[in-house]
Amino acid sequence: MTKERWQKIFKTIIRSVTVVVVIIICLKVSQPSPASQSKSPTYKTGEGFGVSGMVDHANEVANAQVEASVAKYSEDINWEYGDPSLYYEDFSDIEKELDEKSNEMTEAFFKPKVDFPFYFKTKNQYYLPVLKEIRDGKLSVEEALDDPARTIRVLSSDIYYWVTDPNKQYFLNSDITMAYIKEQKALGIERYFHRFFSVIDESIDYEQINKSKNEEEPIQYLIDDNARIVMGVASDFAWSSLKMYDDNGLGAYLKGQYNQDFKPALFEYGFEESLGQYYYPVSDPSLQFAATDYGDLYLTVLAQRAMYEEIDKIIEEEGYGGQIAHVSIPRTIGLTFIQVEKGYDMSQKYDNRTIINEVYDGGYDTNLLLLLEEGEEVDYAKLQQISARIQDLFYTTIFDNQEIWQRSDLFIYFYTLPKVEHKIVIDLFDRDMITETFFRDKTKSIGDIYVNMYITRVETEGFHYLDVRAKKSDFLQRVLGSGQEIRRFTIDEFEKNCTSDTIFAN
Predict the structure, then answer these.
(1) What are the TM regions of this chain, as residue ranges (predicted)?
(2) DSSP string over 391-435
(3) Structural Rg of the chain based on CA atoms
(4) Long-range pairs for 23-31 at CB < 8 Å and ≥24 separation?
(5) How far apart are the C-alpha atoms of 506 and 504, rounded to whole Å?
């Protein structure tokens, strides 16, 4: 099937989904009052077809996400950030000592059990209070590692090993690795991330092994040395399948799409899409994204970064810098099997506004998370101007007869937490500004339509931090309208509407 045909199908589906959403919104506006719901033959709850049922379902899903986050991460987040001042201290020397000792202990576990050359490069994440205890002389490195559940936040290593037979891919799915993971979990370590790099060599090159081991990044040395490498990931999030480090033609496809050179990424995280791989543009290795024969998310990650940078600049210029964390999520609808991104000549340089409107021409779900101290008043004049300027970023539409602002769903949430913790939250959201590197799941039922109409959170540490350590207001502000329309509100009107479910700019 031709690319043009795929694009026609894709556009048809987009229009169909839009029609469904419009119908749902219309139904919401005209839904029966609570007094008459029981008498309405079209009203159903839960997974039924009634709009109220779908809204309830969406709210239940949202609340369940927060509850699950609190249950899973409370102990971890509170132990790591219980003393917020530690977040700003440099413990790199102590971390290096811990990594070296941990590396020795891990290699000692595996050495008697394998008969091929290998080595580890440990890069654990350690809890800040324990690092302080070591620095203050209250705890030795050895004593800290004797209590790994209290010391190690994420157990993480790169494993390099050499085998002569391509069919003998040890470690990743071996009984030895399973026993190691099981032992660590028994010691209380729940979070782990291990990358496996297997070098296939019919005659083991020990000189290559020794040279690579002394490199800061052995994998880059091996790639430059044209080693045959098979990669995999084991983590508490997902286990990947073993894959040869090559692009299977996808790199050439991407170059044809965007007039740029691309390389396969080295599994910075687990990838659940069995038919896809991660890639990055050679010009910017920080932009990793999922790609398949049917489409890719390169333009999506470009757009998400562009939105982050522009919103960050607006917040600073309007005087709310350091108090608003934010994330903007480009909508991809999750149609993994027919996702077709348009080609675009990315060998040229484009400013952020062009990327937001033309390079990526889909919609965005933008979330502003206002951080307040207890008793602090909201500056609604600043919020109004920030909201208007965000909507001003857009100058194109997706469909004919569509308002420009309808590409953008804008939400504002209010959180209360101590001032000293504001910068931590801002830093965590800045660190994870790009989240849409993978294809999202498709809608599984009609009850999920409202859940997927817009996305107001992602499972990053910033959100987990807020779930655990901040107090969230019971209402949100959803701003609808162009920048010009939003500015027509008086400050009193804007503030009054902030306590309702939705602001409609007229």
Answers:
(1) 12-30
(2) HHT----SSTT--GGGGEEEEEEEEE--GGGHHHHHHHHHHT---
(3) 25
(4) 24/51, 24/54, 24/449, 24/450, 24/453, 27/51, 28/55
(5) 6
